[in-house]
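Researcher: Predict the fold of DUF2147 domain-containing protein.
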Amino acid sequence: MNRIILTFLCVAVAGIFSAKAQSVTGKWKTWDDETGEAKSIVEIYEQNGKIYGKVVEILNPAKKNAKCQDCKGADKDKPILGLVIIKGLTKDGNEYTDGDILDPNKGKLYSCTIKLDGKDKLDVRGYVGFSFIGRSQTWTRVN
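Model: Structure tokens for DUF2147 domain-containing protein follow.
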């Protein structure tokens, strides 16, 4: 009987850690579409049941003090470092939708969906209007 209880507890604990590993929250390395170089680290977090992401590190030393010059509204001229670029995503099945993503280099705001591809890859899609008209990136988890 003790063996059955111990086995059940081990399976339950493994399930908890596995579920945590399958979360979109955490730090993710972004990549430059044009150069293929690592660009920044974005920390994705949950707040009030929605998903947000902010730039926590800029990897190019020459751009560490860059500002969101072309952004509109409250983000205009804010430092990119610390800027919230993913806003208000909600879980929909195995992806997160109905939020926005900001491209701080161009100052453009796009509709956004994100979805895990395994435990260490995140598919990020920004689009205008329809999801098939947009751009996708794959970000990698930073441990």
